[in-house]
Every structure is written in structure tokens, then in C-alpha cells.
């Protein structure tokens, strides 16, 4: 990986001529993303993110922290002990520059011997999983990182609305994927292209069923205006 997403974050943080990220997926056209959005304050965050942050308690693990805006709020405004992790070396450099006390380059799937009261996966947290078939392993790893009585706060969207309907009201879904929420994400920055990334959008019922099969209780906390939702998983 070229870490273009992280490079854009670090360029913005260090005022190094940041440009918009160009994103494209298997089901959507090319789009521009303003990097400043990743640096938003609590007041500018969507309701689902605000709700998740208000529910955080105890020691917190922020997985896929990006520019660290969620962790900063938890650390500075709520005085919660927060660990921010991301696989992006550049993003973590930006997090450290922003003042996050515990920011690490870390793939959460390899994290061991640590326990948390709250685990956060926001901005389509299920995306990190990549493929539906990996979901049981993904959830088992999250479960292993929870303290007794702990919680996982995760958001996603049901993207079924993006597919065309036939005359009977059914959906035309390409047969390439095992599940319609599996997409490929492409990112470009300053003329360079990143290696394609598997990304998973997950409908709530599927999350609930797979969570139950892996020893986790699921609770629908909040539904957004555009097929998105926040869920809480617990043992």
C-alpha cells in the first residue's frame, strides 16, 4: 500500500499543499473528498457519530482512527483513556501531531493481550472487515478485546437501495460477489492510485445474525437518514 489516504491526512495536518482525495467504487462514480472533513469537530459530525461518542465509557479503543477526530474528542472533552489505532503510518503521525497521547500503527486483527471497555469502529466500521466470509473472525477478534461488560459501537449502511429494481420490485444484484455489500474501493491522491481495497457495507440483520452466532448480543441504537445505522455489540 502507498498509504495515500494517510498521506492526504498528514499533508493537511502539516499544511503541505493538501488536495482532495478521489474515490471510486465498483458501484459508484468517481467522487472528490475534501480531506478537511476528516478533521471535523464534534459539532460537525453526523448524528450517528455523536451518539456513539456519547455512549463511550471506560477505556476506549478507536479502530481505524484516521485523522483521530473521534479519539481527540474522547480524550480532551470526555477525559477518557483512549487508544487510537490505524494501519496508516502517515495518519498516526498526524494523530500524534494533533495531541493524541496513545496513537499507534496497528492492525487490530493482530492486537493481543489488551482489553477495553469500549471499542469504536466508525465511518462505516464494518468496512475494515472487507468480505462477509471474514466477519466471524472479525467479530471473534473484537470479542477477545472486550472487558467484561464492555461494548463494541459500530456503524454501517445497507446499500441495497443502490441497486436497480426489476418489475416485480426485486433487486438486480451482480453475481460477482458473495454478498451485495461487498465492494472494491479505489483511492487516488495527487495523481497516484492506491491498490484497490475490499470494503464491506453490512445490513443490520446480517450483522445481528452473525454476531449472535459468534456469542455477541446486538442492539440497534440509531438509524440515520440514509440507510445507515449504529449498533452496539456486547458479550
TrEMBL record:
Family matches, as InterPro entries: SAM-dependent_MTases_sf
Keyword Methyltransferase tagged: yes
Name of the protein this chain belongs to: Class I SAM-dependent methyltransferase
Superkingdom assignment: Bacteria
Molecular-function annotations in GO: methyltransferase activity
Transferase found in the keyword field: yes
Gene Ontology BP term (one): methylation
Gene3D superfamilies to which the protein is assigned, alphabetical: Vaccinia Virus protein VP39 (3.40.50.150)
Keyword vocabulary terms for this entry: Methyltransferase, Transferase
Enzyme class: transferase
Pfam families linked to this entry: Methyltransf_23
EC number, as in UniProt: 2.1.-.-
Organism encoding this protein: Flavobacterium frigidarium
